[in-house]
């Protein structure tokens, strides 16, 4: 009964959500599941729950031993504002994930698993790439 009511509430929310955004039910359920998995607040990022969530998806490693960035980040995870921590992950500079940025970076977001520039804003920009990607 519990699973039926959870599924019923997800389908009802999907019906309301698809009036504004075109999406299929499967993708909506995956977004909700990922948002719930990655959405809990962890005081200390090194706690076992954060490590388990962070390691839930296996990392692929390049020939140089650097982790390969994710191809796409789910918006529910990208914009949740919880535990997005910059970390030096590469020996060689990787392309920044922000559209229009031509820089290379060794810093990546530990939660989203994408390489992003953490630099001083210039030319009238108000945000660096790390902030721009998450807002």
Q: Write down the secondary-structure element order.
A: HHHHEEEEH
Our count of helices gives 5
The average pLDDT score comes to 77
Radius of gyration: 17 Å
Task: Set out the fold topology.
Blueprint lengths: L1 H16 L7 H14 L9 H7 L20 H4 L7 E3 L5 E2 L8 E2 L1 E3 L19 H5 L2
Antiparallel strand pairs: 1-4, 2-3
Could you walk me through the main structural features you see in this protein, from its secondary elements to its overall organization?
The protein is mostly helical. The chain has a domain at 59-133. 34% of the residues lie in helices and 7% in strands. It contains 5 helices and 4 strands; from the N terminus they run ααααββββα. The strands form 2 sheets. Strands 1-4 form a two-stranded antiparallel ribbon. A two-stranded antiparallel ribbon has the order 2-3. Strand 2 (94-95) and strand 3 form a beta hairpin. The protein starts with a helix and ends with a helix.
